[in-house]
Amino acid sequence: MTIRVLLADDQALLRSAFRVLVDSEPDMEVVGEASDGAQAVLLAKERRPDVVLMDIRMPGTDGLAATRLISEDADLAQVHVVILTTFEVDDYVVQSLRAGASGFLGKGSEPEELLSAIRIAAGGDALLSPAATKGLIARFLAQGDGDDDRAPLRAERLDALTGREREVLVQVAGGHSNDEIAERLAVSPLTVKTHVNRAMAKLGARDRAQLVVIAYESGLVRPRVD
User: Fold this and answer.
1) pTM listed for this prediction
2) According to the UniProt entry, which residues carry 4-aspartylphosphate (predicted)?
């Protein structure tokens, strides 16, 4: 099965480099290129890619706005957005997740990391390392950004989860993989995957990245500010 990739970056040279890299893989193909967010949204609707590599800083409609438009479109539920950014800008990271991105990746990443990120996102997983989750995300959510009115609603929705699903959600919020969670909870990876999928369905989350945000916003996981 070929992973269809859409490139969204205002720098033609970078798009060209990404295209060469992606098209060199037997299980991937670039199905379109966008130089701004508005064009990315249009191409996402036309080409229905599996993954969009989205730059944040673009003229006109930026990457965050484009990501939000894609994630809010029910017809594009299977389109996963990976934000390309620098890890120094903490607020961009969490804003991208709240906008519906499946994760984020530094532009200085190695080629193999980028290809792995595409495959992870296409599979519905989140690109969140424990360090990134506990550091960048927790620190920013601790500050709040005017969306506190959503917290009670998030917390109420958690009532639908079983005790084990809550346990798994806490582990997901820590940035742990299914294998790591299975080892921590002494269950099989398949069991963990089942709990994650059920939690996503009950909470209306598109992917693991949104589960992380819900876990913090609902208060299930408390941010640590060192």
Assistant:
1) 0.71
2) 55
